[in-house]
Amino acid sequence: MSLVNLDFAEELKEYSGDTALECFNCGTCAAICPLVNDNFPRRMIRYIQVGAREKILENSDELWRCLHCGLCTHTCPREADPGEIILGLKRFVLANWRKS
Amino acid sequence: MFNPRDIIEVLAANVRQTKSPFGIPKFMVNTWFKDLSLHKEGEYLLFTGLMYQFSPFIETSTQYLEKYEDTKTADYLKYAKWVPGYISGIGLAMMTKGKEKRKAGQPLKNIVYLLQKSKVDFGYRPELDDYSGILLYDMGDQKEFVAHAKKVAQKLQSAGIKKIITVDPHTAYALKELFPKYTGISFDVKPYFELLNFEPKDCSLEVTLHDPCFFGRYLKASDITRKQLSNMGISLTNIRNQGEFTSCCGGPAESISPSLSNEIMEKRAKELEEPGKPIIAYCPICLGNLKKSNANVEDLSSLLARHV
Lengths: 100, 308
Fold this sequence. Notes:
The complex is a heterodimer of chains A (100) and B (308). Chain A has helices at 8-12, 28-32, 42-50, 53-58, 71-75, 82-99. Chain A has 100 residues and is an all-alpha fold. Chain A starts with 7 loop residues before the first helix and ends with a helix. Chain B contains 14 helices and 8 strands. By secondary structure, chain B is of the alpha/beta class. Chains A and B meet through helix 6 of A and helix 1, helix 10 and helix 12 of B.
């Protein structure tokens, strides 16, 4: 079971922009990503939208598979900037690791 | 895959202690200019960001990482951050072949030759040529990146530098986009190929151009290389993923997961090799990574220097 954190999007603002809420989950980013892996980065963006903070921390290693190539950002129809969202999540996770 | 935290802490500690992600002292890395007589002053400062110079060391470290990825030994990486940066760096430098280190400087010598041929007024000051910190940024270590970037930017500013020539896409992106945003210090940054100015030629040659993500997509500079090549009578094959829609070479993943990096690289190399023409890269990371596939790949500067 995973708890939903309603303030998570707010907490993330310290690490990146707040474009995650622009995403309407079309999946273009996951389709174009060179990793072609388990709905990445769409799944991570969905976790932000629903406040699944712990899910992100549980699956955090996956974030560092991202090549930061920018194809997802370049093709996102909502200008949600998935590449920068993933970079922001890396910052968030790293800050959590260092706090722990 | 290695534990990202272990890799990040090692890189961050190395940059803090030695200004290099690999811990190698600068005098062992930056030697390419020693047999050239370069002016110190000029309208522009040539700033390599040490990325080409790092490429043989990246290759050596990746070979070791490949050996230990997903083995029990990988767990010991977490202790590496306690090893002083210079010690591991000198070790890495000694394990890297001298021939490879000398080869890594050739694209920089080519770039100097091309700039001189184009009558660009530039100087080179090795004491100002530092690593930009871009890997820390890509890894999400914002705090360490900003601390390092501030030192680099302030040093350049104190030396009165205003105009900079970069040679690789990662350093170009750091200086052009990230330094103004995170250090508050801006420079007029131009990639070297933007300043080249040659008489038109007809080389009657066809090549396949691999655009690096940061030049092709982030900085939208791939049209400039196309114009330069077209001016030399060098035509390009038509591949699916190019320009702003270029595809990654896999290089950025090589520290966290060499196997993933190889997987991405093989896909890209296959696409680039399909037209059967020589492949041209213009990023040291792409160049090093694509070479691993035994593809016929060379740096843009080598191609241009040969045909000017």
